[in-house]
């Protein structure tokens, strides 16, 4: 059963494996550098639905079914579904889960939802509360745009700091069994607010949360950045990445050598006109499931720190002039279950 | 790093917008829209319309042009480059009404299309009309 | 004749270029810029400085949203001269009625016929 190590970190002591995972996206994601790794691509971003909200639900439902299938199980074998998205009251997830009949926990962690849902799924599994859990999340450019910004046909100019919401989804199935990739430790994030108010610069608002969580994890576990092949953040984008590097350098824990950001991986930033990079729940979720988990499974990557960052504002708080609080949840994902470490 | 220091670091990390490209583009596109307007005004004058009516014809034609371009999903693609060149002319005002009307049709004809049409144009009318009323009151007070 | 078009282009372009400077160098949102332009139009119209620009640049001054503001002011001024206090409230919308009605109806018609599309 998971044990607490330090103030922020929980260590899973049974081999909690991600036995199935899938990523889905649309045309722009397919055109990006990672396009060929997605399990499911539909060039039509309506996914055959009448509204953008329904389109997102369909996308999430599709990715969950795909992950369950890849895990070699059926929806009836899943004990808990943990899912969330960016839409008001999480309708993307709830409407997608309507016909599934799986016990459902709806989550809101903005763009950190993939890490939030996966860490809870891993804990449920490790503690034996569920034999199989699904963690899933999605975002859709069009549904996010009309909720948080402007109508699609509105003639506006994006600022250079703006990020492009990914139309994508990812889902993971966790179970207690041997087979990489494993979840080894998780760190629950703290809300960090350094007073950034610009809604078009979410990377800057979220970087302090990533910094705090990394610091907590390194302190709690006594590890250092160089102990990991890859430190993967969710959607800090170009500006957030630069600021996180500055913060980590200042703490003498430089991550410049082995840090990558999903927001910078998913699109060709200059070719695809996405300004500071990709964003949204689906960004970290689809990059993790399409590109990182296969490499962990095959052993091309041994140890990865995956931390998805979320900007926890709402259109209301922004209009009221509030600054944007950020959060980052972390998972240590590994090719090995860590048991041999204990023997040494 | 304190929050203050971080905010200034964040300010420094922001890349400059491409003002050297944006400003001339806005100038040219905005200028061209005005030239189209002028051509329509001249045409209306040629057909013997009054000066005020002719001027209104110029504005109305551009509003219709903007609605068409928005309806055919191209206005936003022009605006991406033209910026204020398509925002400041009356076409931008029309786009700000047409685009939410199209977008929120899915939430119904009354509170979706009908209400959201004014999400940006509404404030323009509120403050424009109120300013003109204040001006009128000043005129009355000074006259009386 | 041709110089009319040149001035329309230059004045209209310049008013838009100022808007772009506001977008690029300030934190003003597009909605705030539109509101500011209309209110500035009312003020300049009220002060009597916008009319010379309209005479000189034609559509270059009437098409930008400052022209809408100036039109509101002009309507109020004329109506107050004719009707007194009643004109304060009737003048602005009367002068701009055609433009507003066309914009509302065009928006309704377009929304009924067209659909938003994803961007790429």
Please summarize what this structure is:
The complex is a heterotrimer of chains A (344), B (144) and C (120). Chain A is of the alpha/beta class and 344 residues long.
Written overview of the protein:
The complex is a heterotrimer of chains A (344), B (144) and C (120). Chain A is of the alpha/beta class and 344 residues long. Chain A has helices at residues 27-31, 52-70, 91-96, 113-126, 141-148, 202-221, 237-250, 262-265, 281-298, 315-319, 339-343; strands at residues 3-5, 9-25, 40-41, 80-84, 104-107, 132-139, 164-165, 168-176, 182-187, 230-233, 259-261, 278-279, 303-311, 326-334. The two termini of chain A are 21 Å apart. Chain B has helices at residues 3-13, 19-46, 51-71, 75-82, 84-87, 90-103, 109-116, 118-143. Chain B is extended and about 70 Å long. With 120 residues, chain C is mainly α. Chain C contains 6 helices and no strands. Chain C has helices at residues 2-25, 30-46, 50-57, 59-62, 65-83, 85-113. Chains in contact: A-B, A-C, B-C. Chains B and C meet through helix 2, helix 3, helix 5, helix 6 and helix 8 of B and helix 1, helix 2, helix 4, helix 5 and helix 6 of C.
In CATH, the topology of the largest domain in chain A is named Peroxisomal Thiolase, Chain A, domain 1
Beta-strand residue fraction of chain C? under 5%
Q: Work out the helix count of chain C.
A: 6
Whole-number count of domains of chain A: 2
Structural class of chain C: mainly alpha
**Straight-line N-to-C gap of chain C:** 42 Å
Chains forming the largest contact? B-C, 76 and 78 residues
Strand and helix order of chain A: EEHEHEHEHEHEEEHEHEHEHEHEH
Salient structural properties:
heterotrimer; A: 344 residues; alpha/beta; Peroxisomal Thiolase, Chain A, domain 1; 2 domains; two-stranded parallel ribbon; 14 strands; 34% helix; 24% strand; B: 144 residues; mainly alpha; 8 helices; extended
